[in-house]
Q: What sequence folds into this?
């Protein structure tokens, strides 16, 4: 079978994944964060990666993006508690082979791994429907500026960080607020985060 690297910062989840992989006949290799996962990849022999979406520091999405950029022949399956269509869309853009929820049955995970290992895709069906009906209206710059706004930075502070004028930052914020149909930048940040667009 396959050597599968699982990446999750919760030890209990790691133990469940390890047990599930062993029962399916795979060889599990564990990591608790993305830097550890990248070290394991450098050692070689990994056929597939299962990663949590959100972890302290680098995320599973960033791990998938690095693999995509380096054109490594390894597929990533995201297993997460975040049932948000925006997260799924961004994961697919990063080249992931699968996106499943952590409460999915072990048999579903095993089947998804087989499918992805053969070159297919495995996506939670309900999330797949939502992802294509709930498109992200924001562009990359609007998302970036909204993230800073959500951290409490003023337009001036955001402008300084991004080497933009304050007027340009205000324009981006205004565009994002208008696209999301909310009253202010904090509401825009909350809605975009809730939808998984940030």
A:
């Amino acid at each position: 079978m396959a050597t599968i690297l699982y990446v999750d910062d919760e030890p209990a989840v790691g133990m469940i994944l390890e047990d599930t992989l062993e029962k399916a006949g795979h060889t599990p290799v564990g990591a608790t964060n993305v830097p550890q996962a990248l070290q394991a990849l450098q050692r070689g022999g990994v056929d597939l990666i299962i990663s949590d979406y959100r972890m302290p520091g680098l995320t599973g999405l960033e791990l998938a993006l690095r693999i995509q950029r380096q054109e490594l022949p390894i597929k990533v399956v995201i297993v997460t508690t975040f049932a948000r269509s925006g997260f799924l869309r961004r994961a697919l853009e990063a080249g992931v082979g699968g996106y499943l929820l952590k409460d999915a049955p072990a048999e579903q995970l095993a089947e998804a791994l087989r499918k992805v290992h053969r070159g297919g895709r495995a996506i939670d069906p309900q999330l797949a429907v939502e992802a294509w009906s709930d498109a992200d209206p924001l562009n990359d710059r609007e998302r970036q500026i909204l993230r800073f706004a959500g951290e409490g930075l003023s337009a001036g502070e955001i402008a300084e960080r991004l080497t933009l004028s304050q007027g340009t930052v205000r324009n981006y914020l205004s565009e994002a607020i208008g696209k999301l149909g909310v009253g202010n930048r904090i509401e825009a940040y909350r809605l975009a985060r809730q939808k998984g667009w940030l």
Remarks:
- Residues 166-180 form the longest helix (15 residues).
- The domain at 140-195 is CATH 1.10.10.10 (Arc Repressor Mutant, subunit A).
- The mean pLDDT is 88.
- The beta strands are 3-7, 27-31, 48-51, 75-80, 98-101, 122-123.
